[in-house]
Amino acid sequence: MESEGNYYDHYKDSFEQQKNYILKRDRYTIALLAMVSILCLRVADVEDVNENIQKVITQYVENIHLNIKYIGVAISYIFLWLIIQYYQICLTIEKTYKYIHSIEEKLSADGKYKIEREGVNYLRSYPWLKSLTHRIYVFVFPVFFISIAFVCAKIECVYLVENGANFPSIISLIAYSINILMSILYLSNRWCHEEAFSRESYPGIKLWKRILFYFGIQKLP
Questions:
Q1: What is the helix (H) or strand (E) element at residue 173, kind and residue range?
Q2: What is the pLDDT of residue 119?
Q3: Packing angle of the helix pair 2-44, 68-107 (nearest 10 deg)
Q4: Long-range CB contacts (within 8 A, 24+) of 70-75
Q5: What's the pLDDT band for 160 if we cut at 50, 70, 90?
Q6: Cβ-contact 197, 214 below 8 angstroms
Q7: How far apart are CA 157 and CA 121, in angstroms?
């Protein structure tokens, strides 16, 4: 009984951690949407937005003037940092949910207790609204972030072609490229079967079969 009590305490602690993770995700979501709004404005009128940002900076730090291109660099890397934090916390939330579900199954295994708050009970008759919200987090947002990063990267490429090598544009382009890569990897983790390429879990499988397993065309053995 003591071990069951300790196990249940661990379950409650895990659930409390999960609530903190969700709160962090919501904060990063708001910050990302704010950053995307700035990027959309920059796409529409780069110079005007950068000048307004410069005015805001000078209100707090006097006698400082930043090159417009370096303001763009700062924005691109803030966007990258938020993307990394957002995807990390989203993956942590999904992994923690699976862990909590496994704890509930073990606590309910002997039939003495019925602990199903986050597992069977939560997933039973899953509301359409929650299902839609889930897809926004795992598909719509990543695709939207890819689109924004792609447009910004294209603008930097055009600038480089028209004006030659430019250090701020190059490092901004790197940031947007990493943004796109991070979003693609997140989509890969959520929608495909990356475990298909684990030689430890699935040894002796040919590469072409692993690709079919990865895309869900065939089921893993």
A1: helix 167-191
A2: 52
A3: 160
A4: 70/168, 72/42, 72/46, 72/168, 72/172, 73/168, 73/171, 73/172, 73/175, 75/35, 75/38, 75/39, 75/42
A5: confident
A6: yes
A7: 51
Domain residue limits, the chain: 2-113+131-214
Sequence-separated (6 or more) residues with CB below 8 Å from residue 177: 149, 153
Question: What is the pLDDT averaged over residues 116-130?
Answer: 64
Residue 110 pLDDT level (bands cut at 50, 70, 90): low
Res 121: pLDDT: 55
pTM for this one?
A: 0.82
How many residues in total does the chain contain?
221
Kindly tell me the sign of the dihedral angle through the C-alpha atoms of 126, 127, 128, 131.
negative
